[in-house]
Amino acid sequence: MKPGQRVHFLSDFHLGIPDAASSLVRERRICAFLDEAAKDASEIFLLGDLFDFWFEWRQAVPRGHVRLLGKLAELTDRGIPVHLFLGNHDMWIFDYVPKETGVIVHREPIEREINGKRFLIGHGDGLGPGDHGYKFMRSIFRNPVCQWLFARLHPNFALWLGDFWSGRSRKKSYENDRKWLGEDKEWLVQYCRGQLEKKHFDFMLFGHRHLPVDIDVEAAGRRGRYINLGDWISYFTYAVFDGHEVELKRRVGDGPLCDDVRVSGGPAV
What whole-number distance in Å separates Cα of residue 238 and Cα of residue 85? Predict the structure, then answer.
């Protein structure tokens, strides 16, 4: 990183819900944030679920979201690396989005060293113990044969079916989004502890959970910070690495004069 540069992390836009009009407002707000971030960004990490549902056919993609896709292309055209982690709602991004926008796609968590600090970065779905029902469904959704069969459906029906399934999944998961279950019951906290037992990480950043969280995690004599980025539906939170520390912040208001409020301590409930 060059002096004055920062790394930006944000996640869980779920564009498309609850309706086109409100989604468009949120999309414009996200693009305005990315414009601001681009002024000092050495890299930008998007940790998944940009869309509430996404599927790519060979010659067709879902309608909408052109402002975000165009903004991502603009950022990468300017030479800013943009990393996109696939979430459980947009795991069917294949080659269209990376080819058109230039983002670097990651399908699993990655380890990175940035400015001497060790990072573990991912979307967060299916990690840690428990959640066996979802892990089974994810194995089906990621199966190439199942993806090929889904692609044989007419896009109008396939997108309706996908939106229906996505809505059921979202409704079930959102029931616990604002509930902090405690460190011993939070799967991602347990996952982070398991990773610390193997090696040291300074920062472990994930999305998926929708609840902004910034806590210390310790295992095997190693200590790191688990940071969940929250979402851009209710919290409008993100994280910034300045080369030394990571800060979890909430964006209050729109445009260049908006306030950025630091979220510190435990879960922001």
Answer: 15
**Is residue 1, in this structure, part of any structural domain at all?**
no
Contacts 24+ apart (CB under 8 A), 65-71: 65/15, 65/16, 65/27, 67/24, 67/27, 67/28, 67/31, 68/13, 68/15, 68/27, 68/30, 68/31, 69/97, 69/100, 69/101, 71/31, 71/34, 71/35
Residues in the chain with pLDDT < 50? Answer: 255-258, 269
Predicted local distance difference test score (pLDDT) of residue 261: 62
pLDDT for 85-125, tens place per residue?
998 888 889 999 999 999 999 999 999 999 999 999 999 98
- The answer to whether position 213 is within a domain reads yes
- Residue 146, pLDDT score: 81
Domain assignment present for 268? no
**Given this model, what pLDDT does residue 173 score?**
58
State the CB neighbour count (10 A cutoff) for residue 39.
10
Scanning 175-253, the segments in alpha helix (DSSP H) are: 187-198
Mention every residue, 6+ apart, whose C-beta is less than 8 A from residue 154. none
- The number of beta carbons lying within 10 Å of the beta carbon of residue 64 is 15
185: burial class by Cβ within 10 Å (0-12, 13-18, 19+)?
exposed
* pLDDT for the residue 89: 87
CATH value at residue 206: 3.60.21.10
Distances (CA, A) of 91 to 22, 57, 268: 23, 13, 27
Q: How far apart are alpha carbons 156 and 209 in whole angstroms?
A: 30
Token pair, residue 21, equals: 């009009």
Contact 83, 11 (CB under 8 A): no
Give the number of other Cβ atoms within 10 Å of residue 90's Cβ: 24
